[in-house]
Amino acid sequence: MRDRECKYLQDFAEEPAGEREMLGSWMKLAAALVLGLTAFGPLHAGTLEVSSPDGNITVAVSDEGGHATYTVSYGGEVVMEPARLGLLFADHHGFEDGLEIRGTADVTTTDETWEQPWGERRLVRNHYNELRVGFIPKEGPARAMVVAFRVFDTGLGFRYELLPTEALAGDIRITDELTQFSIGGDADAWWTPSRQFNRYEYIYRTGKAAVVDDAHTPVTFRQPNGLHISIHEAALVDYSGMSLLALRPGSFEAELRAGSDGIKVHTKAPFKSPWRTIQIAPDAPGLINSDIILNLNEPNKLGDVSWVEPGKYVGIWWAMHIRERTWGNDGIHGATTEETKRYIDFAAEHGFSGVLVEGWNIGWDGDWFNNGELFNFTQAYPDFDIEELGAYALSKGVRLIGHHETSGNIANYEAQMEDAFDLYERVGVRQVKTGYVADAGDLVRYDDDGVKQYEWHDSQFQVGHHLRVVEAAAKRKISINAHEPVKDTGLRRTYPNWMTREGARGMEFNAWGTPPNPPEHISILAYTRMLSGPMDFTPGIFNLRPNEKPPVREDMQRGDASNRPQTTLAKQLALYVVLYSPLQMAADLPEHYEERMDAFQFIKDVEADWEDSIALQGEVGEYVAIARQGRESKEWFLGAVTDATPRELLIPLDFLEEGKSYTAQIYRDGANAHWDTNPYDYVIEEMQVTSASKLDAALASSGGIAVRFVPN
Ligand code: NOJ
Ligand code: CA
User: Fold this and answer.
1) From the CA of 362, how far away is ligand 1's center (Å)?
2) Phi/psi of residue 344, each to 5°?
3) Which side of the chain, N or C, has fewer Cβ within a 10 Å radius?
4) Are residues 188 and 257 located together in one domain of the fold?
5) What is the average pLDDT across 675-680?
């Protein structure tokens, strides 16, 4: 035992400076174990506390009754009642009962600012107080669990760390994580159901916390006192995803997604779990104005990432969703050389950096959803000349954006992945969209004995797969945009080439979803899914009734006419500011944009990478207004959207630089606009403003406003 620990402490001593602070308490705990656990007497009454730098949030950690618990207060009031912590293992004694707090009560402070290569803001302040609490069971083999708490002004994170003692030697198989969250049944909740076939792609449910049974995170709550709380996780690496399973009405336990062998996590000590995060804000925009998730991730591991290029793109994509073209090669194939050139020309003319092409490679004919093993990632259909198109795009200052649909057959994809990225690298591709269309729980892998197994999209296996893809891509200076992904937990900080992803209902549901995304969808997304990170929602549909066009062929009947974006056109523009993604698509067909070039101008002007972002106003499920400053132009942009209720917002423009005057280019709903009856009623106008001005924004039913501020 001593040898293992010495080795471990040596390893730890070699960690970079950032880790050194935690070393002190680790060493004391390790020493306590070596000395038979007696050197460290239990701490006073068994309760330790740590508060946020501004003092508003306090976490009290206790071992009362032999259980590890934490309690969260805000402004001196308890807002999350005592909730349990702990871990259970298949082959080792776990951490549940008979626990005592040992170690130090020292609170350390970190206050640093780091720079994002791209993001919602360039400079991120990471300011927190940390308390590391050691829990040691009074009985059984000697073992220690440290729970590290970091408390920020906008919430907190905590994670489990295990020491490599003899009692925890060998493979550790986690059968249960006992972490609980006490919200209170009376809180309002916005969530999507977990462990359902459509992965994360559900219409948000709205109701009391008491009726939430099994929810994906981030899940957002509003307590009767008005406090907003969002529960999620950060740095999900080599662990399985967590959903919130109701224990009692309004109180939840972390439910880890089990692997095909029934085990939730395979690991070894030393070990650190992902962070469990609790964002806390007095109002809804406060949830958006928090960087907790990023701050709890490790710094960039890839070194120079100047090749990761945010930008806007068009693509051969919506045409398939509205049944004008097909992915497969059957006469109206979308991904032809000729059609791709048309998109490249359009991109070059209007300043887009990329052209996504789906359906270019062998495997789409027939039932692609169920035949992932047929996808070939290096062989193009005969009517798609990838080499020529790569060169053609580059000659026009544009790059192809690649596409790898796997249909969830991970084994087939991993076998071809290196070659597939080599090909894309050779033809100048810098971004690849991946896809995992398969029912939840149906990802295919073969185990060590060659036996076929099915895994969840948020399993430890798939979490590992995503990082294998991201690392293979990084070697070729390629960035990833994953669809049907595991949820975002901020890993873009560590792997800046993992740029964006889907992981919620995007625009595609407005082509064929039954029902399509409802008018309140964006005003919920902004305060739930978007808290986890960027989303490739693919905004900018200009033909708002696509299914009313006649079918292009007898066997290509369009979807139901009710399948359409349930928004005004001005709201489509506002999405470019409201929904953050460093890769932002102009999703409609070139010919639909050509019909409304005046409105298209906003999409041409808006940036996809930001110097700063500020959520200004809003209520979950009702409306949201966000301002962002372009990283390159330093121009400010503003976007606001509402649900089905029309509303008039008065938005102070105090984010603008004081003393400067600006021309506001405004794209807004017209007086008679309504998403259903009159979606194309929009007005484009200019106005002179300063930081002292207030913008009077009248939003129609499911309407929006988009503004560009050009300094005079
Ligand atoms: C689902 C993705 O979300 C969509 O964007 C893509 O076009 C299809 N899968 C086909 O890969
Ligand atoms: Ca999807």
Assistant:
1) 16
2) -65, -45
3) C
4) yes
5) 98
Domain count for the chain: 3
Closest ligand 1 atom, residue 403 Cα: 11
**232 and 364 share one domain:** no
Task: Name beta bridge partners: 271.
Answer: 162
Ligand 1, atom 11, lies closest to the CA of: 405
> Percentage of residues in the chain with pLDDT exceeding 70?
94
DSSP 315-327: EE-HHHHTTSSBS
The ligand minimizing its distance to the Cα of 503 is: 2
Taking CA atoms only, the protein residue closest to ligand 1 atom 3 is 483
User: Residues with Cβ within 5 Å of ion ligand 2?
Assistant: 483
Identify the domain containing residue 432 by its residue range: 302-503
Query: How many alpha carbons fall within 13 Å on the CB side of residue 495?
Result: 26
Q: What confidence tier does 173 reach under pLDDT thresholds 50, 70, 90?
A: very high
- The CB of 536 under 6 Å from ligand 1? The reply is no
Q: What is the 484 CA–ligand 1 centroid distance (Å)? A: 8
Q: Are residues 609 and 689 in the same domain?
A: yes
Q: Which tokens belong to 145?
A: 């669990």
The conformational region for residue 204 under phi > 0 = left, psi -120 to 50 = alpha, else beta, is beta
Q: Round the average pLDDT of the chain to a whole number and report it.
A: 94
Token pair 């939730």 in the structure block, residue = 264
Does 358 contact ligand 1 (Cβ within 6 A)? yes
